[in-house]
Amino acid sequence: MAGTLGKGWPMYSAFCAGILSLILQSASIGTDYWISSDYAVGEHLSDFNVSDVSDLPRIVQHAGLWRLCYHNVNITLYDSEADVHIRCSKVSFKQTEDTPYNKVVFYCEVLAASFACIVIVLQVFGVLSGVQACWQMKSSLYTDCGLMFSFAAIFDAATVSLYLVAVLYKLNERPAGMEQYPEGYADSVDFAWSFYCCAIAFLCASFSGTLYLLIARHWKKQEIYNPAAEEAKDKNKDQKFTYRRSIISIPKL
Fold first, then answer.
1. Are 108 and 161 in contact (CB under 8 A)?
2. How much is the mean pLDDT over the chain?
């Protein structure tokens, strides 16, 4: 492998893994299925001991980083024929109440969304640098690609971890003074395919970043331990350039 590192399948594998991580990350942050629940509010209305629909805790059916869809109950029909439908809205990155519970959920959700955007930016520049590295074959460009995808993997892991903390804390650490979720709802919430796309994007970015750094190390070793070959290559380039210049030069009369 050492002889072919930086060309052939290692280089193309790193590039394809970087492209795949960008596609998966884009799909994950652009969709609303980080979590989902099959809890049917219409079948469990008796579990809510409230007189006002505004006091009902928000029963989320599925949600993402930017938007959530939840069960909405019509108060005028809050009986055996209650009107329950799904309503979607944007995630409001505003702290509603200054309590430790709301602070933890708020900051975890904001940081998760922010880190997800940073990941996309790093992956885009990593892919562009990968195209340039495949064309120019420079160790410095391979190093840039490796660092970008490695940092993208770190921020991706932070995104997954923070969102995981936000969801679990929101469901399991709700204060007694707040309206509680109905029995069985917390167990019905599960992480969905958008969340797993983000997790797989982390693996792809880690693989791509590591492989790019190994390629850069291999090429750097060649530049350090084979100075004669590099000098001969440079000399050959100078000779070709001199020859081309002599061909296109106009002789003096």
1. no
2. 76
